What does this fold into?
Amino acid sequence: MPQGRSQAHDVAHRTRRRRRLAAVGAASLPLLLGGCQLPTFYGYRGQTSQAHDEFLLYAGTVIAAIVVGVITGGLILWSVVRYRRRSDAMPRQFQYHIPLEIFYTAVPIVIVLVLFGFTVFTENKVDNVSPTPAVAVKVTAFQWGWRFDYTNQRVFVQGVRTDNPDPVGLNGSTCTASAPTPNDCLGPGLVLPVGQTVRITLVSNDVVHGFYVPQFNFSRYALPGVTNRFDFNVARPGIYRAQCTQLCGLYHAQMFFHVVALPPAQFDAWVTGSQPQPDQGTVAQPAVGTGGTSGAPASATLPTGATGAAASPSSAAGGASSGGAPTGPAGTAPTASSPARTTPPAGSAGAARTTPSTASTAP
Amino acid sequence: MTLLQHRPPAGASEHPEHVEHHDEPTFVVKWLTSTDHKVIGINYMVTALVMFYLSGFMALLLRVQLSSPSGIGMSLQTYNELFTMHGSLMLYLFAGPFAFGGLANYIVPMQVGAPDMAFPRLNAFSYWLYLTGSITMLLGFLTSTGAAAFGWVAYAPLSTSAYSPGPGADLWIISLFLTGFSAVFTGVNLVATIFYLRAPGMTMWRLPIFTWNMLVTALLILIAFPVLTAAMVFLWTDRHLGTHIYSVAGGGVPVLYQNLFWFFGHPEVYILALPYFGVATEIIPVFSRKPVFGYKGLVFATISIAALSTGVWAHHMFTTGTVLLPFFSLLSLLIAVPTGVKFFNWIGTMWRGQISFKTPMLFCVGFLLAFLMGGLTGVMLASPPIDFATHDTYFVVAHFHQVLFGTTVFAGFAGLYFWYPKMFGRMLHDGLGKAHFWTMFVGFWLTYLPQYVLGLHGMPRRVATYPPGLGWASLNMASTVGAFMIGLSFLIMLVNLWVSWRNPVPAGDNPWDGHGLEWFASSPPVHHNFEKLPPIRSERPTWDYNHPDARTIAHGHGAADRELVGAGARGASGTGDSTTDA
Ligand code: HEM
Ligand SMILES: [Cu+2]
Ligand SMILES: [Cu+2]
It folds into this structure.
């Protein structure tokens, strides 16, 4: 059966070709990672330096996956087409080919180790926290809204679900006027300076939430009992849609927020002077339409959060001393009407934000 | 072990009088009281299929709601209940029980040449636990506060009594107790059967791959399910006895729940996948008319997948900020290696074969392609930075559906089409089977490819509505259309079943020229399966018996392997004495 020999030879030949292809793919990966002109593969190039690092890893990995997928899928389709039954001839009953088996075990090991190397490299950059952040924001997630405390400036923004309590936009305009689409402005706005290191400290008041900004290519859980810290270096001014991604109860689908990235001067103006600083809780808004139309058992008059309010001087820096009382109305509003719960978690805002561990689930 | 004595010795075809005469009860009584693994297996499969159709129906409702930004006005609560129950039914009540309670129950004893499972009554008990558990979970819909609505993972504290009061959640938890014990008992049964009831000659290295995979799956069940049960006990005591295991207020640790759950949850993914890998590995060789390529490497790959799968749970928790990223990332990436090996085993099996595309084989090709893409995106998700960008978005939904649908549906229904003739002695219509396949295949890709794009654009999972104007509506609509094609394909399958029921086409004992011992029995098999057994000298005794001239050549390379058929087999493959008989 000389036929058999040439067939085996054939296999070996193809294998070599595959190896060469894989080598080309692997070699071009770092090259590609250097450049910025990669196709996006439907992902975001990223609006923070961390997000851009992630994007490079993503794009490189997609390319590698396409190479592997095309080769493997090609082999599958080739076998399917080439070896469809044409006669009753008995195929050769071979079962093992040790060199080939070693080859197809070793190559994937190399591929994943290379990917692991790039992963650790990128991960260290994405997760790196600076010892000297320029701005610190404490983000508190609660059912179903967000609170952003600018701990050094004694300012906070809080809002629930789809309402937009602080409609600041770009260049002095409003959010909806300067965002790509009005729906990029849903929820409270997390205003950040461009070009500076921003430290986010993320906590949750009640259940697990997901802090996710798509264009930052980043998400992190807000976990009760855990304080997460990470940095953003926003690259460009803009308005970036964001949303809770971890199922957190009835209104999870509406737990929006958005990031407003301003040039440093505008940010400083926003954070210091330009904001009205009423006492907390004086601004409570009527319900947003979507709350009632959702058909959920909740009433249509869900009170919503405080708008652009700043903490009073005594509740400075996270309101350690006095947060509870003044923020009461705004803070408890979203929970008071939460339909599926017998016991609202205690004081969603004020007291809770400094001591989240005592805030939730006391039945 | 009295059952052992009923088994006639291998090759004892001269003793047909050995057939037993039981007073078999009929129909309903039979289904209710039997301890026969074949009856229980069919009970399991029918129940699991009911769960599959119910859950699929819920999926279609979800897809209708998602077809436009504000949907059809389904309430948020309903949506949350439906995806929770859809996911829970699919994973806990369909995919697992269909594999290890249904297919394995029926096929494993036959493949090892045993008359029944090792513990027939325990087997029946498993089924009853499973049935009760399934009904328990579904009862949630009848309570005034509705079914559980915290996702199939039920993260604490959302699942504690403060945030999910109401009996729907309790029914869900109790259902997991019941089905969890059912799975453990089936696992014990499978391990005992495979270790102790193998026919003479059926060495471990001659076990068909499906049986090997079920052995490994059963061991994984024994590792993983008790942890789930423990997590559920804690959850239940938190809810009802005032313990504070998962609550910060009482000094507990919510993230403990996630660790416990995923210590079960990731092995569970392989508990769901390995049996279906086994199904594909039974079918591809039969329709390629070749032995499985790289048999031993495939077994080692399966074992290493199982071993690695106990150390990767935290890749579901990359974004918690509480886990050691490099460790879990490395192990998760490494698990791609044995999985990749399997692909080359499958390709190598088809390579230079004579592939006939009957329905089961078509489904297997569909499985290979679906699982290829699901696997590659899984490798991407094993890289924490990429997971940060896509976690809990539709990218993940698309990924796990490609994997789960690829395995449990493509390979699972391949198995159904493949073994149905054995179970009922009648064929399913091949043309209708192919119509089922192509509708489902197109629908599948149309459903899930757009979801990758949606996820990359930032659409979160588990949302009933999404804002208009972001360009998501058309992609979602495409996905919904695809889902309805999948739905249609399963109506075609019902028609197929009905046709085969009304106009039976006799199957014969071995319609596909099969490999394993199950094809040596009659269709359907007699009460204790075998009246005689062929000599068992490799992992495909029936094939060897029917094709004495086409024994396995161990090595596909080298100079000396061609004329000396079987000689090279000595040593390397465990089929050492393949030239000595027949
Ligand atoms: C008939 C085809 C199917 C369709 C159209 C479908 C559709 C869906 C939809 C719309 C969701 C909800 C997504 C969300 O809102 O986040 C979902 C979730 C899910 N599906 Fe499917 N699905 C199908 C088949 C399957 C299969 C075969 C399995 C597993 C064996 C499965 C397992 C799951 C799981 C685990 C979830 C997650 C539930 C959760 O988030 O808690 N699905 N599916
Ligand atoms: Cu949420
Ligand atoms: Cu996993």
